[in-house]
Amino acid sequence: MSEKRVIGSASHLYEVEEGWGKLPGGLAYGYTHGICVDAEDRVYVHNTSKDAVVVFDREGTFITSWGEEFEGGAHGFYLHRDADGVEYLYFADTNRALVVKTTLDGKVLLEIGGPDRPDLYDTERRYVPTDLCVAPNGDIYVSDGYGQSYIHHYDAKGTYIRSWGGHGSEPGQVIEPHGISINLRGEEPEIYVADRRNSRIQVFTLEGVHKRFVDHNLDLPCSFYFFGDEVYLPDLDSRVTILDKDDRLITHLGEDQQAYKQQGWPNLPKEYYRPDKFSSPHGVCVDSHGDVYVAEWIIDGRITKLVRQK
């Protein structure tokens, strides 16, 4: 019997469930970018292959796959229960410069292209959305992480409302706003932006007004997953970070401060990877049991399940 691999801190211990989520024959991941879990604890893996959405049950049994239209452009991935009580998937497609809303089985319900802002975008200044989130009122916020570093605000039908941000490090400015999410832990909803190349989180009101920075214990934060009073962040520089309700560090999971310094990273020789260490975490989610699922930015994909012990 192999030895259990347990990582985390005194309050957050996890056992690595090796071999979780095996793909059936004929399927192979591209870069695994995003990962979500629905109310039934089904796990959705978003990757750049022709099977851009792969679905498992929580035990890791393959259910289905779909999403050929996202091949090569799979990036931002968000699951939200809308006001109608139904869960939907939202995508940010970097290749097609599209935001897409679908049912859980892939029926397209909404597409949003780039904003009509010739002052921000032209043939030289590209729009490349990397993530999105949905506010309690249904409004949609999109982060142009690989383009011009703006946040764009739409209503639930995709009608443009406003933009803010721009490249820089001053309050309200961002450099590579890679991930975006809604924080519902306080008295009023807030927008959290993974201001990745500034190595910080920037917090805004729903109208785009800067409120504060979170800039401790972060390196290259990619995105967010809120679970109870905590927030889980995949940090591309080789760890997953958990913060408490006040955004103070609880623990880092699977930290490997040598991985991102290796030649050829993130695509390292297979013998380098270890089950209890991360190389390039890009997406994270948490199921109803507190188990954590991590997707890494690796050319042929890597998914890790961490089973909560305490």
TrEMBL record:
The keyword Repeat applies. Gene3D superfamilies: TolB, C-terminal domain. It comes from the Bacteria. Keywords: Glycoprotein, Repeat, Signal. Pfam families: NHL (PF01436). This is Uncharacterized protein. It comes from Paenibacillus baekrokdamisoli.
